[in-house]
Amino acid sequence: KNQVEQSPQSLIILEGKNCTLQCNYTVSPFSNLRWYKQDTGRGPVSLTIMTFSENTKSNGRYTATLDADTKQSSLHITASQLSDSASYICVVSEGSSYKLIFGSGTRLLVRP
Amino acid sequence: DADVTQTPRNRITKTGKRIMLECSQTKGHDRMYWYRQDPGLGLRLIYYSFDVKDINKGEISDGYSVSRQAQAKFSLSLESAIPNQTALYFCATSKGYDNEQFFGPGTRLTVL
Fold it and tell me: Which long-range contacts (CB under 8 A, 24 or more apart) does B42-48 make?
């Protein structure tokens, strides 16, 4: 069964600190992997996308990594800000179709 | 700005009532989707439409129906709402061969 699992479920860090969120997937065939950010009361917004051949992709203070051999991805947030408080969702695209497999997300709270 | 909008944003209803959630988009995308989000679970696909005349069931379509009134409009109906349909509902859109999906702000539905 195609699945995407994320850890931790929730995380609290102090402003200015770094953190890393994890994603493991068992989706086949694999097309690409995205990290989405979902602010409270809003829809998810794409942060990064990585295909099979990409290992690292950055978007400002967000850096995603992908290990296609172990089927793991991580999202690293550098120098966290209060506005980083949100849920981060790992989403894997099955094949070349519309079908997306969503993780349940990591809820990040950045405290002053 | 090209956008995805949903109405209503919040709705409280009673068991057995018929409910319609509406989605409109100004992105010019041909594909539209309805998802539901429950606490601790990833988003799950209810229905999707690749064109006005092309509507398909997702993984959890029981108890729901949809209508694609125009390229830009896609509505979701609960014919007879039940409490376990209490959830956050998202509409999303994408272009034909680009599977990045753009999400609306969501509708929080509570069925008493």
Answer: B42/A4, B42/A89, B42/A101, B42/A102, B42/A103, B42/A104, B42/A105, B43/A44, B43/A89, B43/A100, B43/A102, B43/B90, B44/A102, B45/A99, B45/A100, B46/B76, B46/B89, B47/B76, B48/A98
